[in-house]
Every structure is written in C-alpha cells, then in structure tokens.
C-alpha cells in the first residue's frame, strides 16, 4: 500500500516512534520490535520507524499506521540505507516511507542522492525521508526530491556540534528556509517537553526512539541518577 498525500498530511503535529534495538541485545528480534511498535501505537504513535527488512515486515503486519523503514549497513559514514539496492529492499519489505542517509557525503554505490530517490519513487512508489545533519543537507535533499527531511544526523556528521537534547537551532534554520517538504525532528528527544519544543521550532512531526523503546538506556538514566546503585 502506498502512502497518499492525505495520509502523510495526517502526521502533522504527531508523534512517530522509532522501535530499534542494537545487535546483540535481548530485544534484537523482529517480532519483539513489532510488538514494541504495536504498543507504541496504542499509546498514540501515528507512525512507526523500524530498522531491518524482517522488522519492517513484522511491523507492517502488527500495525495499521504508516511504517518508515531503514536498513543500517555498518556503523560509520553513510550507513543508513546507503545504496539504491538497500533502499529498494526496504521498500519491497513494505515500508511506506524509506528513510536513508540524506547528507551530501559520497554514497557507497557512487549514486547521487537524487538518483537514489528517483529510483525509489519510480521502482517502488514509496516516499523517501532524508536523514540530514545540517541546513545544507536539508536544502540539498529537498532539491534532490526527498518527500520529507529529518534532523536525524545532526551532531553526527561533523558539521554541527552534538547538542544535549534535540538540535532546536537546526530545526529553526530549516523551518525558516521554507522547504516544500515536511520537516521531521529526530535525534536526542528524551522528554515530552523536548518533543513539544521541537514542534514549536517548526517541525512537522517528531520522532522519539530511545526514550520510549530502549529499556537499557532508559534504565541507565535512572541508575546513573541514583549513583549507579552505590
């Protein structure tokens, strides 16, 4: 099922929950992530973001909201759905929106971002969310045809410092640029108050992952606050 403009517009002002677990963790299982996603929808998530082809497939069966899918290959450089091959595999697994690295860095397959987005649009019909790290990234991604741009990589590409919490300044900069595609806030949004600030900074929608779906990290926040149990 393709995502219509009306369904995309319905995400305005809403919460998107990212359900991901790192390799080697107890919850690193597609069905577990799908169950986490379904639980998030009960709580009010208007869309779900998941990593991995099996996770996308299981999540599509578990929820009726739009699914943003991605494929991480590696840990450095361009590793979020880095090639056309990865992007098409994500779309074919059932993602309504393919999330991919939307920076201006060289891609592993030598394709440009515009070529990658065009391939997704023409061969699958899925929408594309460009994960960006700066204003220039967002401007270039919009020009390349991205259907949404996100601040996912802010603080991770060397162009901007890693902020304590969401990069509200970058959100404001991109919002002020007046892009025609929606702006999605993502990255280090750990509290409801921060999510609200992201919307007020100009975000179309807000993605929250770790603070909702990563028990190990959430537990560590409490443990650290108590002195690590000492």
From TrEMBL:
EC number: 5.1.3.9
Reaction(s) this enzyme catalyzes, per UniProt: an N-acyl-D-glucosamine 6-phosphate = an N-acyl-D-mannosamine 6-phosphate
Coiled coil spans: none
Highest taxon above the source species: Bacteria
InterPro entries given in the database record: Aldolase_TIM, NanE, RibuloseP-bd_barrel
Pathway per the UniProt entry: Amino-sugar metabolism; N-acetylneuraminate degradation; D-fructose 6-phosphate from N-acetylneuraminate: step 3/5
Keywords: Carbohydrate metabolism, Isomerase
Pfam families per UniProt: NanE
NCBIfam families on file: PRK01130.1
Record-linked HAMAP family: ManNAc6P_epimer
Function, in words: Converts N-acetylmannosamine-6-phosphate (ManNAc-6-P) to N-acetylglucosamine-6-phosphate (GlcNAc-6-P).
Family classification: Belongs to the NanE family.
Record protein name field: Putative N-acetylmannosamine-6-phosphate 2-epimerase
Organism this protein belongs to: Glutamicibacter nicotianae
């Amino acid at each position: 099922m393709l995502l219509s403009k009306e369904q995309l517009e319905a995400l305005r002002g809403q919460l998107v929950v990212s359900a991901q677990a790192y390799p080697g963790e107890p919850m690193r299982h597609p069905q577990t992530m799908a169950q986490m996603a379904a639980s998030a929808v009960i709580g009010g998530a208007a869309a779900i973001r998941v990593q991995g082809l099996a996770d996308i497939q299981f999540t599509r069966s578990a929820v009726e909201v739009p699914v943003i899918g991605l494929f991480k290959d590696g840990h450095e450089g361009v590793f979020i759905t880095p090639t056309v091959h990865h992007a098409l595999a994500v779309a074919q697994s059932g993602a309504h929106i393919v999330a991919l690295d939307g920076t201006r860095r060289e891609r592993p397959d030598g394709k440009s971002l515009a070529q990658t987005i065009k391939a997704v649009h023409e061969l699958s019909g899925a929408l594309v969310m460009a994960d960006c790290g700066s204003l220039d990234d967002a401007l270039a991604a919009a020009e390349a045809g991205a259907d949404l741009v996100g601040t996912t990589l802010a603080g991770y590409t060397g162009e901007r410092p890693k902020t304590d919490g969401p990069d509200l300044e970058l959100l404001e900069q991109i919002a002020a640029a007046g892009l025609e595609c929606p702006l999605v806030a993502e990255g280090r949004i750990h509290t409801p108050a921060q999510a609200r600030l992201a919307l007020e900074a100009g975000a179309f929608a807000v993605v929250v992952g770790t603070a909702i779906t990563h028990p190990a990290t959430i537990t560590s926040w409490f443990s650290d606050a108590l002195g690590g149990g000492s």
